[in-house]
Amino acid sequence: MELVVLNTSGKETGRKVTLDETVFGIEPNQHAVYLEVKQYLAAQRQGTHKSKERSEITGSTRKLKKQKGSGSARYGDIKSPTFKGGGRVFGPKPRDYRFKLNKSLKRLAKKSVLSQKLKDNSVRVLESFSFDAPKTKEFITLLDALTLTGKKSLFVLPESNKNVYLSSRNLPKTRVLTYNEISSYDLINAGEIIFLEDAVEKFQENLKK
């Protein structure tokens, strides 16, 4: 399985990159993808929600009326959950929504997404590039050459590159990540995935560990 390497003008360079079929050619496992995306989204939650129970409400603890003889319901104090402004029963409390998944399952999820993306012709390989300084205009020129303007795209780098990252930071539909930072959510959320040539082998080795 091979992909042609493109240059920054969007033209073929004549070179090809071999893709490992155990990474890009498996039968997608939808449940593994679901679990990793669920884990990613759960980890984004702050979990700082909090409501006051009756013991935390400021108010008198005096019994509002006698227990019997009124002909209506029995009332305790004004902090009862049945009254407006009273405490809430079983309200939300601060909690951590994160949960763990096996590394092998997370690798399977990424392989599943990549295999489906390759079937949909949404994976490309681009020759390695860099910028002398952070320039968003140059990155936009690159997107135009690759016909990615207005599309969600994910660029996968072999190593951290500050100038490339800063050049893309203000583009809302473009993300730049190194090969070891990617989650299944990032892969799914991207319409097009662009691997830099040097990142392909590193990414494949990372998923085969």
From TrEMBL:
Extract the ranges annotated as region (Disordered): 45-95
Name of the protein = Large ribosomal subunit protein uL4
Q: Which organism is it from?
A: Epilithonimonas lactis
The record's HAMAP family line, in alphabetical order, gives: Ribosomal_uL4_B
**What is the superkingdom listed in this entry's lineage?**
Bacteria
Q: Name the GO terms of the biological process aspect.
A: translation
Recorded family membership:
Belongs to the universal ribosomal protein uL4 family.
Could you tell me what this protein does?
Forms part of the polypeptide exit tunnel.
Q: How does it assemble?
A: Part of the 50S ribosomal subunit.
Q: Which UniProt keywords apply?
A: Ribonucleoprotein, Ribosomal protein, RNA-binding, rRNA-binding
Which Pfam families does the record cross-reference, listed alphabetically? Ribosomal_L4
Task: Please name the GO terms that the record assigns under molecular function.
Answer: rRNA binding; structural constituent of ribosome
One Gene Ontology cellular component annotation held by this UniProt entry: ribonucleoprotein complex
Q: InterPro entries, per this entry?
A: Ribosomal_uL4 (IPR002136), Ribosomal_uL4-like (IPR013005), Ribosomal_uL4_dom_sf (IPR023574)
Task: Indicate whether Ribosomal protein appears among the record's keywords.
Answer: yes
